Amino acid sequence: MDPENQGAIKDLVDEHGAENLVVVVGAADPEAIEVAAETVTSGDPAYVGPLAGVQLGLPVMHIFEDDVKEQVDPAVYESQVGFLEMTLDTAPVKEAMRRYRVGD
Amino acid sequence: MQLRGKKAIALGERDSVPGEAIAECLTSAGAEVVMVRTECFV
Q: Based on the number of CB atoms within 10 Å of its own CB, is A86 exposed (0-12), middle (13-18) or buried (19 or more)?
């Protein structure tokens, strides 16, 4: 993850507290999802950004997950994400999120 | 997880769902979006 974004997230945790924050990602590449999730939970895996060695423990969700979709206004979801959900392969995304949750 | 009332970080990707689209969705779900980014993962 971009070091600048890591710094911004770190500042938000300092300001709002990790318990009040949630990270929602939109990447379709399982590796990108894993890197993002790892960075905001257990620290920057590349050890180059402000979150290197910093365990924020933030909850991570994906915009394609049913748990997120069910909470979004259906019309908004359809207009913002519907086409992408239809054209991108969501199975690897859901599998990456499942692996992240079980700590695999 | 309940999104309503949470402060949300929308972390999109250029080749998939952009941060702005995620933010629109989260706002409609009752979350307060505090950061929006669209990264380029190469």
A: exposed
